[in-house]
Each structure stands twice: as structure tokens, then as C-alpha cells.
Write a sequence for this structure.
């Protein structure tokens, strides 16, 4: 069973702090990873994807991938109350027909 | 560009009744997915279509769930008979391509929230 595991949370950080969200995966065949944000009662929306080892930055967001350790993370700098949501990590492999396998999500709360 | 459309948004039924959900993907998207998201959990793939063919339905409970994508566009997901544990949000998503590791993102609809009493 191919699995993606995330810290269950909830994670609470003060406004302006760095939020760190972590994800591990069991399938070494997974090639790319996606971070989705899901506000309560809404559908998931893509924040970033990463497929190369190392860091990928986009504004206040940085995704990190370490394939040797089978570890993915998302850092949110200068966290804002509007970042409060559930963050879903998902993995995709070459031979999985494009489907994403999601973790259970980490709830983030940013306190003003 | 219009997004993924789903209906109904909300449905409440008694156990053992049947229900159907409809999805219209983004125009031109060949791949369509149905995910089940139980409260507090991540989405779980039920079925994936590439055009009008099934790519993966390994986690679809086929004794009660069925899905079709006639003409490779709209799709319908049916549950008959429903059980209490089917209470969830049913998310439809679409993407331009289905294969390869670095292909496009999945675009999700607003979801259909099912409550089984």
C-alpha cells in the first residue's frame, strides 16, 4: 500500500512566524509531490509542486524534497492568519497514471 | 476559464437509498478523477478516467459504487445502496494529462457533501 503520512496537527504558530509542515512517503517510485491548501468546506487548491531534490521557492512558500529520506516539507514564511487552513501533501509516481495519493492533511492555525 | 462543476452540492439520504453525483470537468481535460474525502482525512481516489476509459478503480467499492464517463466529458458517480460510512465529500478533479511524473496539476470542483442517516 503506497502511503503518504503527514503530522496530524493541529499546528499553531503566531503571525509572522515560520510554519513548517512535514510529509513522508513510502513509495520510492514517487516522482513528484504536490502541496494543496484546503480551507474549511472548500476544495483543495494547489500551492506548489516539486520533483527535484532540494528547495523550490515561490513567494512566502518553500517546498523541500529529499528523495533519499523520502521526505517532503513546506515552509511558510511570515505566516498570516489567512494561511490558516489544512495543508495536504500528495505524491505521484510515473506508473500511477497521474493520480495523486494524499496524506491525511495537517491543520495550520496562525494566531494574530 | 470555467472550473470543474459538480452537483448537487449537498445531499442527505437515508441508508440503503441511492444517490448520484455529476461532474463536468474543465474543457479539454482528458483525465477525470473522483475522490472521497471523509471528515478529517485526506482525499482518497475512487476512480480515474482517461477520456472515457477507466485507468484505475482499484479502491472503488464496486458492490455499491459505480461511475461512468460517457463521451469522455461529463461523469456520474452513483452509490446504491448507501451506508452510513459513505458520509463524505465527493470531489471531482480533472487534469490535462494523466500520465508522467511531472504533468499538470489536478483542478478540483467544490465537491458534493453526502450525509447518510
Amino acid at each position: 500500500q503506497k502511503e503518504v503520512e503527514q503530522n496530524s496537527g493541529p499546528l499553531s504558530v503566531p503571525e509572522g512566524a515560520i510554519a513548517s509542515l512535514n510529509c513522508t512517503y513510502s513509495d520510492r517510485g514517487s516522482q513528484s509531490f504536490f502541496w494543496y491548501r484546503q480551507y474549511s468546506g472548500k476544495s483543495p487548491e494547489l500551492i506548489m509542486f516539486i520533483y527535484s531534490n532540494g528547495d523550490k521557492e515561490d513567494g512566502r512558500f518553500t517546498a523541500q524534497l529529499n528523495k533519499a529520506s523520502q521526505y517532503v516539507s513546506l515552509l511558510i514564511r511570515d505566516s498570516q492568519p489567512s494561511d490558516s487552513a489544512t495543508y495536504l501533501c500528495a505524491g505521484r509516481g510515473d506508473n500511477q497514471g497521474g493520480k495523486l495519493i494524499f496524506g491525511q492533511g495537517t491543520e495550520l492555525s496562525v494566531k494574530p | 476559464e470555467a472550473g470543474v462543476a459538480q452537483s448537487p452540492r449537498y445531499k442527505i439520504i437515508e441508508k440503503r437509498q441511492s444517490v448520484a453525483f455529476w461532474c463536468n470537468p474543465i474543457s479539454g481535460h482528458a483525465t477525470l478523477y473522483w475522490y472521497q474525502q471523509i471528515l478529517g482525512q485526506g482525499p482518497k481516489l475512487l476512480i480515474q478516467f482517461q477520456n472515457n476509459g477507466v485507468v484505475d478503480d482499484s479502491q472503488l467499492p464496486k458492490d455499491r459504487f459505480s461511475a461512468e464517463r460517457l463521451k469522455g466529458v461529463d461523469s456520474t458517480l452513483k452509490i446504491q445502496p448507501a451506508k452510513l460510512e459513505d458520509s463524505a465529500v465527493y470531489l471531482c478533479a480533472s487534469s490535462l494529462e494523466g500520465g508522467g511524473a511531472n504533468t499538470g496539476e489536478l483542478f478540483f470542483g467544490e465537491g458534493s457533501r453526502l450525509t447518510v442517516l
Notes: Chain A touches chain B through 27 residues (CB under 8 Å). Chain A has no helices and eleven strands.
